[in-house]
Write a structure and sequence with these properties.
Structural class: alpha+beta
Strand order of the largest sheet: 3-4-5
Distance between the termini: 22 Å
Order of helices and strands: HEEHHEEHHHE
Number of domains: 2
Shape: elongated
Length: 156
């Protein structure tokens, strides 16, 4: 492996929005010490959170049951691997579909922990691709309404 890149969707916000938030934080809007504004104290972070609340859903939205059922997907988590196979460029794309974005975050590691307890994964520290058989693992995720699609693009 020459390069590994991780991109997160920034809690439902566009990367550009997060970049703007960083600029605001750099200017002190994430500060927790009150500043005097028009004769009264204002905590910059409280002001920023209040203004951003219209753009970021409340935590209760993340914890609530899904509003939709498959196949009305709401979230897709994508892993893309690019490289060469037999001298030709190839792209593998694994898409995880769910109605609830946080669901795979908890279910996948929980299932891996159960497999470890059952002896299906050896004790120790290993990358998942070395010790987890993907097909049965994805099948177990499917039983919990987390579906996996795999695509392969080979260049001629």
């Amino acid at each position: 492996m020459r390069e590994c890149f991780f991109k997160i969707n920034y809690w439902g916000m566009a990367k550009e929005t997060v970049d703007k938030m960083r600029v605001l934080a750099d200017f002190g809007f994430a500060g927790e010490e009150p500043v005097e504004v028009n004769g009264g104290p204002v905590v910059p972070r409280d002001l920023l959170v209040a203004l951003m609340s219209q753009y970021v859903p409340p935590i209760t939205d993340f914890l609530a049951p899904p509003r939709t059922k498959p196949p009305a997907w709401v979230k897709e988590i994508v892993t893309e691997v690019r490289g060469r196979k037999d001298g030709k460029q190839v792209v593998y794309r694994v898409g995880t579909l769910t109605c609830k974005g946080a669901l795979p975050t908890g279910v996948a590691p929980a299932r891996a922990a159960i497999w470890l307890a059952e002896g299906r994964i050896p004790p120790g520290v290993y990358p998942p691709e070395v010790v987890i058989d993907p097909l049965p693992f994805f099948k177990e995720l499917e039983e919990r309404e987390i579906y996996t699609q795999v695509g392969v693009t080979e260049f001629l």
